[in-house]
């Protein structure tokens, strides 16, 4: 499970503030990716009648600033994750061959944007699709349009902040079953001061996510853009430690018994073994009627199922009532 630290628009257009945020994140956050919202063509994204037009215009960075931002992330050893809001952003960002790029749910079926991304993307780059607040029909249309083998469906949405009753993990699990070929992520936007913030994020992670995303800031609880769901680096690292435990609990999914299960499942002391209910002599023909299943301090290499395979075989030695049968007791 990979962790994503999101910067979003918390910088409010203050380049020095963002660089300070990045210093904090790359040096203190135990994350795998640092996510940035990249916008280079405002008029492709907004009509100027939108109430956020002028504000966003003042919060945009130029190409040279974006070069510094990406350089800081990559120079730290962390990986940049780029959310593309326009085609110019795609052109710029794809020069860095990012592992993860994202299309926000607000543009999930913007065919101009998706077409441009398709022309620039390689099969090695994963496309993260934000699907919070989107219908199943919208998700299917975007997936089919992109026709890309490496898609990550990112659940979760920012409702300033999200109420946990709106998360609807049962719906999330149903959608996941419809797209078994993809990976999934959970972007948690629980209120920064909610007492169960980390617990709710872990609930999301435990649904089978490959990626978990949280907003991170250097000024915890200070009213700035996206502040309501933004946590501190300390909280992020606490979450990371709990994610490690969750990963260990999830295991590798191997259906064979692991070492701990094998110790728990020893036939005889733990699981019932095939124990003779009468004394038997060398050369006697074994019958299932000769045994009962009981727990005993004796260990055996024959399971309750496998004992049937020895029906009709001759015994190799005299055995007393109460002996747990082993493979060596039978003449093959």
Characterise the protein shown here.
This protein is of the alpha/beta class. The chain folds into two domains: 2-250, TIM Barrel (Alpha-Beta Barrel), CATH 3.20.20; 259-331, Antifreeze-like/N-acetylneuraminic acid synthase C-terminal domain (Type Iii Antifreeze Protein Isoform Hplc 12), CATH 3.90.1210.10. It contains eleven helices and 13 strands. The model has no long low-confidence stretch (mean pLDDT 94).
The helicity comes to 25-40%
CATH topology of the largest domain: TIM Barrel
The major β-sheet equals:
8 strands, parallel, barrel
Look at the structure and give the CATH class of the largest domain: Alpha Beta
At CATH's second level, what is the architecture of the largest domain?
Alpha-Beta Barrel
CATH evolutionary superfamily of the largest domain: Aldolase class I
What descriptive keywords fit this protein?
single chain; alpha/beta; TIM Barrel; Type Iii Antifreeze Protein Isoform Hplc 12; 2 domains; two-stranded antiparallel sheet; 11 helices; 17% strand
Short synopsis of the structure:
The chain is of the alpha/beta class and 332 residues long. The protein is built from eleven helices and 13 strands.
Which helices and strands occur, and which strands form pairs?
Blueprint lengths: L1 E5 L8 H14 L4 E6 L3 H4 L7 H7 L3 H13 L3 E6 L2 H7 L6 E4 L7 H10 L5 E5 L5 H11 L4 E5 L13 H10 L4 E5 L9 H9 L5 E6 L13 E2 L1 H18 L8 H6 L8 E4 L14 E4 L19 E2 L14 E2 L1
Parallel strand pairs: 1-2, 1-8, 2-3, 3-4, 4-5, 5-6, 6-7, 7-8, 8-9
Antiparallel strand pairs: 10-11, 12-13
Helix pairs in contact: 1-4, 9-10
